[in-house]
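User: We ran a pulldown and think these components assemble together. Before we commit to crystallization trials, I'd like a predicted model of the whole complex to look at. Sequences follow.
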Amino acid sequence: MEPAILTEGLTKDYGSHRALDGLDLRVERGEIFGFLGPNGAGKTTTIRLLLDLIRPTAGRATILGLDCQRQSHLVRAVTGYLPGDPRFYPNLTGRETVELIAGLRSRPVDATYVASLADALDLDLSRPVSVLSKGNRQKLGIVLALLDRPDVLLLDEPTSGLDPLMQQVVWDLLRREAERGAAVFFSSHVMSEVEQVCERVGILRAGRLVAVEPITRLKGKSLRRLEISFAQPVPADAFRIPDVREVRRHDTSVVLEVAGHLDEVVKAAARYPIIDLRTEQPSLDEILLTFYQEDSR
Amino acid sequence: MTRLGLVRKTLRDARGATIGIGSVIAGIALLDVLIYPSYKDTLQDFEIPEAMKGLLGEAGSIATPEGFLTAEFFSWVPLLLITLAIISGTAAFAGEEANGTLDLLLAQPVKRWRLAVEKGLALTIAVVLAAAASLVGFALGKSWAEIEVSMGRIGAAVANMLPISLLFLMLSLWLSAALPTRGTAASLVTGLVVVTYFVHLVGDLAPALETIRKVSPFYWAEPSLVLMNGFNWWRAGGLLAIALAFGALAVWSLERREISQGSRDWSIRKATTIRRAPGSERRSEQPGTSAA
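Assistant: Here's a predicted model for the assembly, 589 residues in total across the polymer chains.
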């Protein structure tokens, strides 16, 4: 069976600047794939290439076996898209916008389904788009992306501007889409979001794919900050362990940065009486740093 | 798929400008017909300044109904229709791209040529409707005042305003699809309209300009000839053929256009603003896009 999304050597140059450099990626049907990277890494460029909004300098991409350039309108017929900054016609209401886009889709749009999406997202479709807040515009963008239950969803920062409760609703919607067999490809720079819904994650840096990892391995590989308070000062070489770096030491407490699993460091710490142990969730930057360091080695 | 959904949407977007310009044109038509009987005798002795004779076209005298309507209406009202064409034509692609709504349309299963054709069709309808509004003004005027030109000849002269308006509409569409910004496209078309109109007006005075004058589309859209002799299919057909060629170029350019997110400027072509990101090689940002 053809993969949902396949890119081979996908490259995009803007003049002398290479925005995307030989991207090889495969996303399966029913999978939720997170595309992580800082601003300017090439995430949006990838999504726009898949939709044929921009043209590759080299390489090719397919969606469900359809060539993203030569069969772009067929690709868009099976694809739902949410841009990073959704914009609409200010003179239309949400409902009129839905009707306009529904009229352009190839598949029939179920009005009951649209109403249920709007309900779930707490979105009033009768209001003019011009008065909608950033969050409500984002919700309208999500409704449009899911409008005719497409086989592939390309979502650029889907929960941007939404409150935590609404983010949960969106994640649930995406899980449901994946359960029905749709491939969900979304870009993000928020690690917690990716953790919530993704099975695999691709990490992009300056246009190059640094790694594609299951989310569990990504978390295992990432840097973690550990602060341990002991009952008494511990020897200076207590944590001379590979992949562990002592960041700070103050009297009886030690702050460590650990790359990978915590097993060794916890065993080393357990040789001394521990009063308190705190670990911090790595930020996206810290995770990316881990991969960037590995990549540059 | 809802048939012609984009046509309806485009017409709706152009509604304000179409109604506005259509109403003004209808008002001017009504006024011209109403005042002609009062001025007819006075105008017999009126010698139009040499520099303004271009406004009369081939009509010879402003005292004749053909000369009066040419000078007072058909010589310059096409400029209003062309204004509508430029406003709505340049908004079609570069304008929608700057608003971020071109993304919304082109992310749907719509072929780009179809988007161009439907927008072109809708704006052609808008220009035709605005021009047709003048017929209402002329018909109302003729029911109250006497002017010795048949409604058929007036209708032909109104129809004669369309090829040149559509030529500039299609040119606007093409430049809107080919150039990065709406402002650039609008400036170029407006400049071309001003230059060709001026060349046509003053070309009548200087024999040296006679050849250049024939390059101006306004020369081929001469209204006085239509009012005196009836509709000239060859002249109109030539202008419409050029309009169609510009329309085809609009489709060709839109097919090749790289769609950016929101507004951009010329510099997008050049990948500017080189900056060094921490720990990375030299790279540049793409203006007008938020490439993540």
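The beta strands of chain B are 274-276, 282-284. That may be worth checking against your pulldown data before setting up trials.

User: Thanks, that helps.
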